[in-house]
């Protein structure tokens, strides 16, 4: 048994906790969910249901602000993603370049892959 | 007051500095919560005062130092764009509020604009308190829906072939715009460059201009 190999394999076989690894990768197309939570939220209404592209994964993982607002923190750390949405996707009558965009950090629980 | 000779004797009547209006709903709520937190010994009056001192020590002059350093030091600029917070910390700028910082670079093809549509998130550790217009609803609503019209009202005309990127700060990350270094500043020292950088340029509503241009009509 080659011990040097075993230790290298062990390092690659660690099991990550839920939420530890990002669910979405840069370049993936995502949609902001259409939900209407009561109370504290961080996803502006004007972006709900809108589609965009994941620009980057924000490190490190963060607490779910919506839960934190009510004192519920345990186990809720997940990633935020910087998402790029074309202005023309958000506003049908947008006046400007079609390349103009809106960029925002969205918590993992608010995104779905499309 | 052009006719006011300020001889410090104060033998003339002054309007009394006083709070004449009744406190509003949210003022009363803030006072009640603050008193409750102190009464329950969760925070002390000294901690509140200390935090006010922390906030008062943060001004746009700090952000200007960061920008000027990025202009003269390409390695620092790279680190700043890769991790805004870590690069600012190199300069002794602490982040007391657990926020991250993404620095967004303006180029000849990209113009960045910062807003917080939900409230008034702002890179306070490096810029201090936001201006009032930043917190008011017209800017917050219009910056994300008609940024070019908003910029034009600040006197900033963005050509159609320049892409506008509006960053809406809502969560754990704050933004700072790294404006373009104006032409004609090749011989400027870092300190001279620092003096050119204004708060509004780091929010992205105006470019950095030479002092002479700024005072022009």
UniProtKB/TrEMBL annotation, chain A:
Pfam families per record: NHase_beta_C (PF02211)
InterPro entries from the UniProt entry: CN_hydtase_beta_dom_C, Elect_transpt_acc-like_dom_sf
Protein name: Nitrile hydratase subunit beta
UniProt domain Nitrile hydratase beta subunit: residue ranges: 20-112
Automatic annotation (TrEMBL), chain B:
InterPro entries for the chain: CN_Hdrase_a/SCN_Hdrase_g_sf, CN_Hdrtase_a/SCN_Hdrlase_g, CN_Hdrtase_asu/SCN_Hdrlase_gsu
Cited Gene3D superfamilies: Nitrile hydratase alpha /Thiocyanate hydrolase gamma (3.90.330.10)
Gene Ontology molecular function: catalytic activity; transition metal ion binding
Biased composition (Basic and acidic residues): 1-15
Alphabetized UniProt keyword annotations: Iron, Metal-binding
Region (Disordered): 1-21
Residue ranges of every copy of the Nitrile hydratase alpha/Thiocyanate hydrolase gamma domain listed in the record: 26-205
Residues annotated to bind Fe(3+): 116, 119-121
Pfam families reported for this sequence: NHase_alpha (PF02979)
Similarity comment text for this entry: Belongs to the nitrile hydratase subunit alpha family.
Protein name as catalogued: Nitrile hydratase subunit alpha
Organism in which the protein naturally occurs: Lichenifustis flavocetrariae
């Amino acid at each position: 048994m080659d011990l040097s190999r075993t230790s290298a394999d062990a390092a690659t076989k660690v099991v990550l906790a839920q939420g530890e690894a990002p669910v979405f990768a840069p370049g993936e197309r995502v949609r902001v969910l259409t939900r209407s939570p009561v109370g504290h939220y961080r996803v502006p209404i004007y972006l709900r249901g809108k589609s965009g592209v994941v620009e980057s994964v924000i490190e490190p993982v963060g607490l779910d602000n919506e839960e934190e607002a009510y004192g519920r923190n345990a186990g809720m750390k997940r990633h935020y993603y910087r998402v790029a949405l074309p202005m023309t996707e958000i506003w049908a009558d947008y006046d400007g370049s079609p390349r103009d965009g809106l960029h925002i950090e969205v918590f993992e629980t608010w995104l779905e892959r499309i | 007051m052009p006719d006011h000779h300020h001889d410090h004797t104060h033998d003339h009547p002054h309007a009394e500095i006083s709070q004449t209006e009744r406190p509003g709903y949210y003022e009363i709520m803030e006072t009640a919560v603050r008193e409750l937190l102190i009464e329950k010994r969760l925070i002390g009056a000294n901690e509140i005062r200390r935090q006010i001192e922390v906030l008062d020590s943060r001004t746009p002059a700090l952000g200007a130092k960061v920008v000027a350093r990025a202009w003269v030091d390409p390695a620092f600029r790279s680190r700043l764009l890769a991790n805004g917070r870590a690069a600012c910390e190199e300069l002794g700028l602490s982040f007391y509020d657990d926020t991250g910082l993404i620095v967004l670079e303006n180029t000849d093809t990209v113009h960045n604009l910062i807003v917080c549509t939900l409230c008034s998130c702002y890179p306070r550790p490096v810029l201090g308190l936001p201006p009032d217009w930043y917190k008011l609803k017209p800017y917050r609503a219009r910056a994300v829906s008609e940024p070019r019209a908003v910029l034009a009202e600040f006197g900033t005309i963005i050509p159609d072939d320049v892409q506008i990127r509006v960053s809406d700060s809502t969560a754990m990350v704050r933004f700072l715009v790294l404006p373009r270094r104006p032409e004609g500043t090749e011989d400027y020292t870092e300190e001279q460059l620092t003096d050119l950088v204004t708060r509004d340029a780091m929010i992205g509503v105006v470019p950095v201009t030479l002092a002479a241009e700024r005072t022009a009509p």
